[in-house]
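Submission sheet (multi-component)
Chains listed below:
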Amino acid sequence: MNMIQAINSAMDIIMTRDPDVIVMGEDVGYFGGVFRATAGLQAKHGKTRVFDTPITECGIIGVAVGMGAYGLRPVPEIQFADYIYPALDQLVSEAARLRYRSAGEFTSPITVRSPFGGGIFGGQTHSQSPEGLFTHMSGIKTVIPSTPYDAKGLLIAAIEDNDPTLFFEPKRIYNGPFDGYWDRPSQNWSKHPAGEVPTGYYKIELGKAKIVRAGEALTILAYGTMVHVCAAVVAEAGIDAEIVDLRTLVPLDIETIEASVKKTGRCMIVHEATRTSGFGAELSAIVQERCFYHLEAPIERVTGFDTPYPHSLEWAYFPGPVRIGEALKKIMKDA
Amino acid sequence: MASEHPRANLQPLTLHIPEPKFRPGDAVDFADVDVPPAGEARRPDTADKASDFTDLAYTLVRVLDDDGNAVGPWDPKLSPDVLRRMLRSMALLRAFDERMFRAQRQGKTSFYMKALGEEAVAVAAAYALDYEDMCFPSYRQQGLLIARGWSLVDMMNQIYSNTADRLGGKQLPIMYSVKEAGFFSISGNLTTQYPQAVGWAMASAAKGDTRIAATWCGEGSTAEGDFHSACTFAAVYRAPVIFNVVNNQWAISSFSGFAGAEATTFAARAVGYGIAGLRVDGNDALAVYAATQWAAERARTNQGPTLIEHFTYRAEGHSTSDDPGQYRSEGEPNAWPLGDPIKRLKDHLIVIGEWDDERHAAQDKELAEQVKAAQKEAEKNGILGHGLHQPLESLFDGVFEELPWHLKEQRQQMLDEEAASGRPWDRKA
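Outcome: structure written.
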């Protein structure tokens, strides 16, 4: 399965198991979504459980919050994460706080799916990575898979979770892993072990990172598309790096991070989002607080730039192999 | 070409900034507020198409006339018993507001908001809805809880953030949440409850339930994007929801003109969405009841949403933090042409021979005693001014269903700091 099929399978399975799960969003119904993630769900589960919505993100999330308060488990889709900003208030002031402010009388068991990230020539409005905005706000969970296998297991866990969850799908790797070299032939999930996805039910606990590659020389913390880019760079550079795929940013798997950095003594953080106040800043602070006396080099951050995503200069913005390679040299300089 | 039309010959553009008719010191004359005679507005069948009665979005549905008679097709013909209960709820709301307002002034809590002058809006609607229907209120619909017979002590506990506060001291006073009484958790962010009410109503419809949702916002916050998103969703899916716009003329110090009132009515917002719209005398409990009942019937028979503008007046300040004397004429509340909703319902009951001034005065006295007794009871659980009432560690409860490590760590840090402060648990009640 590719990641889209895995996500589709997750929704199909959970809708079959739980009649309270509802899928809604722009174009998700009859058409099955612009990325086809909801294809076939309406035909199978009916129009009142899978339906198209007006183009109002604030409305989509606000309505989902109300449905959640009724007792349903809505899975709203925001077609591109760049369009989540009109829904920001409903997400962070309402969904994220409803349990807290009502002392548990009302909750928002919603899972917001949204394709995010660049690398597809989507320009400024189809490429952004807004995860840092949400990790900054208390009460909402943030999940980012990097493989079809993880995507399915994590999405099922997110939908079954009773807290509001953002499920950001790295759209650059919907169809196959990406090594960061845009001018090389693209790969396919069918040739990757994580593309082997069971057709039945399984879930992956939220808050658990995965060690993608065990190593001793340094720890690389990454998520989504960047996991694959880092793996490719590390393989070509022949460095014995430990690559940790965070999988969920909130809650964060602190134990895996801490153990890895203490073991390797070096930490590099890689994400596509803009640098300033990005989630890398939080990771860097956490590692510094907990592992300072184990560090043998300053923490390195490799990120997107503090600019909008530039259409024709996309590959200059993208933290690809060149930038990651330079950072690797820098952090390993005294090794 | 632009150059062929020298700009020097064009009239300069001007920017219109709305201005209310009266400011502090001005004499008030509401003669230009159009108040059509009671009984005049037609009452369409609830199955009629919304486009067949758009005129009702531009007039004022009124039942009680100036002499206290109930007239016209919207008269809900309620029994004297129901009328008396409605009157009692409205008077209880006023007594409650009065006492809690004073409690704030006495430093017993941080904040309060009265519904003075608009008691009919929430109370009459509560009587017209089923108890099982879900209300998504704004911050001035405490009348819903009172009309639904909810415990005054429980409401006061919330206002005092005391040991018995069902919300554990986590919300601003008056931001109640009472799921049991169909009262959704109030948000301080305006009109966010509108799409949520639509979602609840859509969920009810999707599950084949029979319950409907109702929601309230002020006229000022119809400018929020959520309002328009909600109207679009409700119209598209014919959600069984009632939108109430409480046009009480003032959004803190901004008059209704800043929400667009100079150009049209708020009920007319419905027309553009193809939603049924009614403009109602919000100080006429019978009109509010009748309109709500009519809208509820539309919702329950799958005719879709209704938007009701309640034309009323906020006779008090916005909240205890507001001084309306700074921005509006003090003559306004008394000159308001629709009168006092409690007096109008009381006069009606007297006209039909079911009430009298003595009974009313006795009831007021009894209600004041009831509120006073409730306050005494609530204050046994503490008042906000007397320090913390909740265990410190409860600060972290409810961010998530289960506490993740980083919140556990922060909680431990807080407790350690408190213990190390030399005055551990000082701030407990």
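Remark: Chain B touches chain A through 46 residues (CB under 8 Å).
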